[in-house]
Amino acid sequence: MPPALAEVVSDFADMQGQDKLQLLLEFANELPPIPADLEEAAMEPVPECQSPLFLHVDADDREAVRLYFSAPAEAPTTRGFAAILATGLDGQSAADILAVPDDFYSELGLAALISPLRLRGMSAMLTRIKRRLSNA
């Protein structure tokens, strides 16, 4: 797991109960905006998410992959998951991202607080990122 993502997982491991949800909301508020030259219409939808989520994987430089996410402010859980992936994986090499365990999100300890359907949304985001990198 890349160090930046391992640090996020560690931050969640240090929290208990509702504090984990508060941390997720803090991540949601920190989701970077998409660049002005990237339109949401050109991004890939992730229909497995409960709320509208779009992502774009820029793998032109496989040593520093750029990840962009778009999710509405009214979807804090989805935004939080996207922000976790952005914080932990943006700028990492394609090889490092492809090596991330598919179920890494289980280490966040959110299963007791968030529905399995919402957690599958995070899994779907990572799966789509990996698929893009495998096909690039």
From TrEMBL:
Domain of life: Bacteria
Pfam families named in the record: SufE
Domain named Fe-S metabolism associated: residues: 10-131
InterPro entries in alphabetical order: Fe-S_metab-assoc_dom
Protein family (similarity comment): Belongs to the SufE family.
Protein name, per record: SufE family protein
Biological source species: Mycolicibacterium hodleri
